[in-house]
Amino acid sequence: ALTERMGDAAFREKARDVAAALRSIIADNGGRTIEGPTLGDGVLAVFTSARQAIEAALACGEAGRHAGLPLHLGLHAGDVIRESDPDGRSNVYGGAVNIAARISGLSAPGEVLVSETVRSLARTSAGVAFEDRGEQPLKGVGEPVRVWAVVGGPRTENPEPTGSGA
């Protein structure tokens, strides 16, 4: 719909600008953009931290909103196969990549969805809240995956210490 409204050239120019901003955000949050040949207008990145991935996804969503190109954002954590393509670009493959892509496809424009795996890894460190979206069947995945929406910004932490003592 955006291409129809803006025209091919204007959309492509704006999409290039957003993609450059996303690559910068990903790097700033400790991630690495994967430059595989089959991504189309998508961006794929890998992170070593679920918290950093969530922070990057939220910032990417904001960059897309600011540019008028709302993004569909999905995160999953798992093992990947790393490989260099014949043209020298690095790529990742495997079930975790497929699940992340399917979760991204479930998200509404501007929404960040994460798998149960990501929520479990980051639930106490990401400083955000999660809203349960239930188990979702994903194309090409044998079992449903529980999906959570990242909601709100960073939680306000209680500055007072908690716990019990004697």
Description:
The chain is an alpha+beta fold. The protein has helices at residues 2-6, 8-28, 50-67, 95-106, 116-122, and strands spanning 32-34, 44-46, 73-75, 81-84, 90-93, 112-115, 129-136, 145-151. The strands form three sheets. It has a four-stranded mixed β-sheet, sandwiched between helices. A two-stranded antiparallel sheet has the order 1-2.
Order of helices and strands: HHEEHEEEHEHEE
Helix content: 25-40%
Straight-line N-to-C gap: 64 Å
Strand tally is 8
Tell me the number of helical segments per DSSP (H or I, 4 or more residues long).
5
- Sheet with the most strands: spatial strand order: 3-6-8-7
Summarize the structure.
The chain contains 5 helices and 8 strands, in the order ααββαβββαβαββ.
Any key phrases for this structure?
166 residues, alpha+beta, 4-stranded mixed beta sheet, two-stranded antiparallel sheet, 38% helix, 22% strand, disordered C terminus
Summarize the helices and strands and which ones pair or pack:
Layout (H helix, E strand, L loop, with lengths): L1 H5 L1 H21 L3 E3 L9 E3 L3 H18 L5 E3 L5 E4 L5 E4 L1 H12 L5 E4 H7 L6 E8 L8 E7 L15
Parallel strand pairs: 3-6
Antiparallel strand pairs: 1-2, 4-5, 6-8, 7-8
Helix pairs in contact: 2-3
